[in-house]
Amino acid sequence: MGIWGTSISSLLPIMFIFSSLISLVGVLLGVAFFTLMERKIMGLMHYRKGPNKVILSGISQPISDAIKLLSKEFYKMSFSKMTMFSMGPVVAMMIMVLMWGVYEPYFSNMSKSSTTILVIIALMSLSPYMFFLMGWGSNTKYALMGSLRAIAQVISYEVCLVLLILSIIYLTGSYKMFKIMGTQMGMWMCMINVPLFLCWMMMCMAESNRTPFDHAESESELVSGFNVEYGGGLFAVIFISEYGMIMFLSFLSSIIFLGSGMTLLKTMVLCGIFIWVRCSFPRVRYDKLMMLSWKLCLPYSLALLAFYI
């Protein structure tokens, strides 16, 4: 029995690494087909056809796009700070992977730990650094302006997002995600407090730089914002990290506000809300965006936290 126990315990690190790799591959495949779903839904909402040519009505379009990006040549710009320029996408990818690593389903106890939400808050607070590295490392006007916008926006809405998370903790009486899910057996959190859910979704869109809060990448003003100088593989890494964060925020929202059971379906519905908002709403003015954060969302979040305390 001791020999078997020793052999199994020696295999646990290998099993953990293998399980983590499987989860990472699943997230990457999910990002690929999430982009396909977005393009299909946007085509339907705009009364046009989406991707429908590449193998079986366009189902392999994301794979062909990935091959195209990864096969492009990497070019070194003389005016860019290449160390910071290269580190920005890597930091973005690391933050996204660590976010999903909190919920590694098989061998990690982090998802059952009382520090799960604190780890998520800590990882969210790292996002301004990736914008800083990409904008400053690119050393161009549009990239720097886009990164400054992104940093200001993320910091502004992150404060409100953390206050809402603390309100949910006080409302449910637990830091553990499983207990938060268990408190919603009778009724979902989004039905108990509809304004809280709407405010949460709005802040998630601002945190992920999605329409109508996409000032960091506004094409009509900044060409492509902080990632204007990126192409090929590095652009693919930025793209994957952005959509991976959208999927994670949808997954986290489904756990906190929609209870347990059918989590995958609920996550897909919330991802669909991100797409629907992108197709339906115009970009808000930048000063209105900041006023919305500091003059409306922050007082509401503080009042809600004071009420639940």
UniProtKB/TrEMBL annotation:
EC number(s) reported in the record: 7.1.1.2
Pfam families referenced in this protein's UniProt entry, alphabetically: NADHdh
Similarity comment text for this entry: Belongs to the complex I subunit 1 family.
Transmembrane parts of this sequence: 12-36, 82-103, 115-133, 154-173, 185-206, 227-249, 255-277, 289-308
Annotated keywords: Membrane, Mitochondrion, NAD, Transmembrane, Transmembrane helix, Transport, Ubiquinone
Keyword presence, Cell inner membrane: no
Compartment annotation: Membrane; Mitochondrion inner membrane
Catalysed reaction equations from the record: a ubiquinone + NADH + 5 H(+)(in) = a ubiquinol + NAD(+) + 4 H(+)(out)
A single GO BP: aerobic respiration
Domain of life: Eukaryota
A GO term from the CC aspect: mitochondrial inner membrane
Membrane topology designation: Multi-pass membrane protein
Name of the protein this chain belongs to: NADH-ubiquinone oxidoreductase chain 1
Gene Ontology MF annotations: NADH dehydrogenase (ubiquinone) activity; NADH dehydrogenase activity
Keyword Membrane recorded: yes
InterPro entries hit by this protein: NADH_UbQ_OxRdtase_su1/FPO (IPR001694)
